[in-house]
Write a structure and sequence with these properties.
Elements lengths: L1 H18 L4 H29 L15 E2 L20 E7 L5 E5 L8 E7 L4 E6 L8 E6 L13 E4 L4 E8 L7 H9 L2 E4 H5 L26 H10 L9 H8 L16 H26 L13 H4 L3 H11 L8 E2 L2 E2 L14 E5 L11 E7 L4 E2 L8 E3 L14 E6 L11 E3 L5 E8 L3 H4 L9 E2 L2
Parallel strand pairs: 6-7, 16-17
Antiparallel strand pairs: 1-2, 2-8, 3-6, 3-9, 4-5, 4-8, 10-18, 11-18, 12-16, 12-19, 13-14, 13-15, 13-18
Helix pairs in contact: 2-5, 2-7, 2-9
Length: about 450
């Protein structure tokens, strides 16, 4: 009885604290914290809205619970996702798990071909993988279940994959060896199947969930300054049962009207509170810029630390925000590593006015079980750079066609203009203005994961 009374008193005190209007200083701090926390959820919603909700959007893929296969690699025309790869034709699945789980089936894939299914929840946590590294290349069925499902694993299922959110994004990647290989990729993609559990079992479907009126997302630019950011965050959070580690965080956010299904009424706030909210959002982005400059650009915090399961991330919200802002839906490091180049060997930012060289000895090539690539991205959008030769990357399948230096090294030429006809096989065009580049190591070997291998420096040509 004493415990019940104490719990009731605690709840009343929390509700009283929420009811009392926060001071401008507190509002600023909450807005800053909620911006850092919420950016991945809000930007994830922007992408999923364009992919699975808005049929008039040029990036629309398919309705929920339907696999969409893209029988080509991504190009500069694909603008919904920052830093897309151009190595592996994508397939996408937007999973609505409110009514029942989904059975996701994969075909047998030849051993030499890498493929993966990356399971991303609404927080942008990579909570599971299927594919070459994680489960092998054999045919299998997997059950994807949401947080409210309490059923038993049926026969014919290799594994149950549990998500803590009602909606998920499943990103499929299927390796393309070269341009002539695209029909083989399409055959693999045709074997990707998804069906509701009831259909898999031959049973009647459960009652359909209530329809959702999806709210319009903000653009990436608007997400930086618009107070509507918090209403979108509130909308998303209603499909994300609160994790025990974030109960106190949600109580704090509620002081400013931020939380699952709440109404963030910016217009009803006093001018002082409105100013505090806007200052808090600006401070969050300023802190992100400092984090990027001092931690990511310098290599102190690899970009891969922002991608992973909740257990790996340990509520490091700035790392998660940076990962979403710079390259949402990046893989967990055991699936792919992303050694990045934001600055050159002299610690200067990368600019197309200069030319750069990246050299590998044969024993220094990125150590992978599958393949590696180097891709260039235009700034500030972080999209593939549209260039005259339509080359967005150089990867390991291209090694036989690359020119060797006299000493046996392989040098890649990153520059705006051609390095000359005899070196064009090794040329990766860069934009005239600012850019960045990243290596991708798919299924990295232990020496890449434990630091025994490090990326070579990107040298500016003097």
């Amino acid at each position: 009885m004493v415990r019940i009374v104490l719990a009731a008193m605690t709840l009343l005190m929390a509700n009283a604290a929420i009811a009392q209007e926060p001071s401008p200083a507190e509002a600023r701090a909450i807005a800053k914290e909620a911006t850092i926390y919420g950016l991945p959820l809000v930007d994830n919603y922007r992408v999923q809205y364009s992919y699975f909700v808005d049929r008039n959007n040029p990036d629309f893929k398919a309705p929920w619970n339907t696999v969409n296969n893209v029988g080509r690699v991504f190009t500069p025309a694909d603008k919904a996702i920052q830093t897309p790869n151009s190595d592996t034709p994508y397939s996408q699945l937007g999973a609505d798990l409110r009514a029942e789980p989904l059975v996701i089936s994969v075909p047998e894939v030849e051993t030499a071909r890498y493929y993966s299914l990356q399971f991303v929840d609404m927080y942008t946590f990579n909570f599971a993988y299927v594919g070459s590294r994680a489960t092998g290349n054999g045919a299998a069925n997997f059950l994807l279940a949401g947080p409210r499902w309490n059923g038993e694993e049926p026969e014919g299922i290799k594994a149950v994959i549990r998500s803590e959110t009602d909606f998920d994004f499943v990103q499929y990647r299927t390796q393309l060896f070269d341009a002539g290989d695209i029909d083989n990729v399409k055959k693999v993609q045709a074997g990707y199947k998804v069906q509701p559990l009831s259909q898999f079992l031959g049973q009647p479907a459960p009652a359909a969930p209530l329809p959702i009126e999806f709210i319009k997302p903000l653009s990436p630019e608007q997400q930086r300054t618009s107070p509507e950011f918090f209403n979108i965050l509130n909308f998303v959070l209603q499909f994300c049962p609160t994790h025990p580690s974030e109960t106190g965080l949600m109580v704090r956010f509620a002081r400013l009207g931020i939380g699952a299904g709440k109404k963030f009424d910016f217009n009803a706030m006093s001018p002082d509170l409105q100013k505090a909210v806007q200052e808090g959002m600006a401070e969050a982005w300023k802190e992100f810029a400092e984090f990027k400059a001092t931690q990511i650009d310098t290599g102190k915090r690899p970009a891969s630390e922002g991608f992973g399961a909740r257990e790996f991330m340990k509520n490091d919200y700035m790392a998660r925000k940076a990962a979403a802002a710079l390259g949402i839906y990046g893989n967990s490091k055991e699936e792919a590593l992303y050694p990045a180049y934001f600055i050159d060997a002299g610690a200067e930012k990368l600019e197309g006015a200069h030319s750069y060289r990246l050299s590998f000895t044969l024993d220094q090539l990125p150590p992978v079980n599958s393949f590696w690539s180097l891709t260039v991205y235009d700034l500030p959008a972080s999209l593939l750079y549209d260039n005259a030769i339509d080359r967005y990357l150089i990867n390991s399948p291209m090694l036989p066609g690359l020119k060797r230096d006299a000493d046996g090294k392989i040098t890649l030429y990153l520059q705006h203009e051609s390095p000359g006809k005899d070196l064009e096989a090794n040329w990766l065009p860069i934009p005239a203005g600012p850019f960045w580049a990243t290596l991708r190591l798919y299924w990295p070997k232990p020496e890449a994961l434990d630091g025994r291998w490090t990326q070579p420096p990107l040298e500016r040509v003097k």
